[in-house]
Specification:
Shape: elongated
Domain DnaJ homologue subfamily C member 28 conserved: 9-76
Radius of gyration: 24 Å
Order of helices and strands: HHHHH
Number of helices: 5
InterPro entries: DnaJ_C_subfamily_28 (IPR052573), DnaJ_homolog_subfam-C_membr-28 (IPR018961)
Largest sheet: none
Number of strands: 0
Organism: Solidesulfovibrio fructosivorans JJ]
Protein name: DnaJ-like, subfamily C, member 28, conserved domain protein
């Protein structure tokens, strides 16, 4: 009953605003709507995350995903063996932290080729240094 009343009131206010021309000069009128990719967010949380984002709050999952991407990029760009090792430890820690929080593995499959190449690069460079140390 309550939802019906709210729905009726909302419809009446929308109709009144349309009659008054309140929707005529809206920003972006006539432009294509660009939808955000929220496929990584569980369906039942999407609306809540959208509200939080519009209010200026970023969900912790998005912050953590950005940290993981940054750590992977730093690992790929690192030339010093110690720096590569530090970045790999940081990347592993961040992934472990996300896995523990979600209670399921992080979906790294979309970046699996990139991750494989980073590991190969670290392995090849590390092996080359070990050979030089002998």
């Amino acid at each position: 009953m309550f939802l019906q009343a709210v729905s009726i009131i909302a419809e009446e206010r929308i109709a009144a605003s349309m009659r008054n021309g309140d929707f005529e000069n809206l920003e972006g009128k006539g432009k294509k709507i660009v939808f955000e990719d929220d496929s990584m967010i569980p369906e039942d949380l999407r609306m809540a995350y959208k509200i939080l984002k519009n209010a200026g709050y970023v969900p912790e999952e998005l912050t953590q995903e950005k940290e993981i991407i940054t750590a992977a990029e730093l690992l790929a760009a690192a030339t010093d063996e110690q720096e590569r090792y530090r970045q790999m430890q940081k990347l592993n820690y961040l992934i472990m932290k996300v896995n523990a929080r979600r209670r399921r593995p992080v979906n790294l499959e979309r970046d699996a080729d990139y991750y494989r190449r980073v590991v190969e690069r670290v392995t090849v460079r590390g092996a080359g240094r070990e050979a030089q140390d002998r």
